[in-house]
Amino acid sequence: MDFVCAGNWKMHKGPSEAAAYIKALREMAQPEELARLVIFPPAVCAAAVAEGVAGTEIRWGGQNIFPAPSGAATGENSPAVFKDMGAKLALVGHSERRHIFGEPDEALAKKVQFLQSIGTTPVLCVGETLDDRRWNRTAEVILRQAKIGLTAADPTKPVWIAYEPVWAIGTGEVATPLQVEEAHSILRSFLLEWSSAASAVTPILYGGSVKADNVSSLAGLNNVNGFLIGGASLDAKELLNILRLSRDARGGKI
Ligand code: 13P
């Protein structure tokens, strides 16, 4: 399974900054590195990113979608339009969508299903809160989120999973290697039960305060197939640095 470093820009950057970022990334990265990079720009930058990555292997995706090709859904983004613009993936159930906007697991399952139906890869994000962890509910919470999120999913079509503990997002507090390995192994066992064929090709990314300083202790762990990076991905050089340090930590294999 190929290793990926995905940058989630959240609500940062506008079109001109996005274009400059992608230009810088293209100039700095080796051709084989481009295929390991994914960008999730805000929708307002989608066109700039799509144009910037055209003709390269850099992939990009939406941060959130509404599960319909078009319609009366004020303020939402059509996954069909993203696809038409060249998006290959879309985030589903990012912690900020779950906690700020109250998106329930059942609604996320519909997004996963719809994305797969149009040939876009959903990246289903799961993760426990600090309270969940304190009360020893981590396994229960991430399994519930994964199970319900994939209830209507087709195991013969691509899906990615991102484990992002809520308490590690944007806090500078990264999960320990042991915590990451445990959570990823729980998710891997679930995927194996869901479909062993799907599990063999489903990457599980870790996200939560990943940066160049801490990536080396995480990149080589079992079942860590990549990273979903917020703050540190806002700088193209840092994102590339994280990819390169991951490669080193994995003995050159990405
Ligand atoms: P940070 O890397 O800023 O903690 O954000 C993680 C995240 O939410 C990526 O989706």
List keywords for this structure.
254 residues, alpha/beta, eight-stranded parallel beta barrel, 12 helices, binds 1,3-dihydroxyacetonephosphate
Detailed description of the structure:
This protein is an alpha/beta fold and 254 residues long. The protein has one domain (4-249): Aldolase class I (TIM Barrel, Alpha-Beta Barrel), CATH 3.20.20.70. The chain has 12 helices and 8 strands. It has helices spanning 15-28, 31-34, 46-53, 79-84, 95-99, 105-117, 130-134, 138-149, 177-194, 196-201, 212-215, 236-249; strands at 4-8, 37-40, 59-62, 89-92, 121-126, 160-163, 204-207, 226-229. The chain has an 8-stranded parallel β-barrel, surrounded by 5 helices. Helix 4 links the parallel strand 3 and strand 4 (89-92). Helix 6 crosses helix 8 (138-149). The longest helix has 18 residues, at 177-194. The radius of gyration is 17 Å and the shape is globular. The model has no long low-confidence stretch (mean pLDDT 97). 1,3-dihydroxyacetonephosphate binds at residues 8, 94, 164, 169-170, 207-210, 228-232.
Distance between the termini: 9 Å
Strands ordered across the widest β-sheet: 1-2-3-4-5-6-7-8
CATH level-3 fold name: TIM Barrel
Beta-strand fraction estimate: 5-15%
Under CATH at level 1, the class stands as Alpha Beta
* Rg, nearest Å: 17 Å
Structural class: alpha/beta
What is the structure about, briefly put?
The protein is of the alpha/beta class and 254 residues long. The chain has a single domain (4-249), classed as TIM Barrel, CATH 3.20.20. It is built from twelve helices and eight strands.
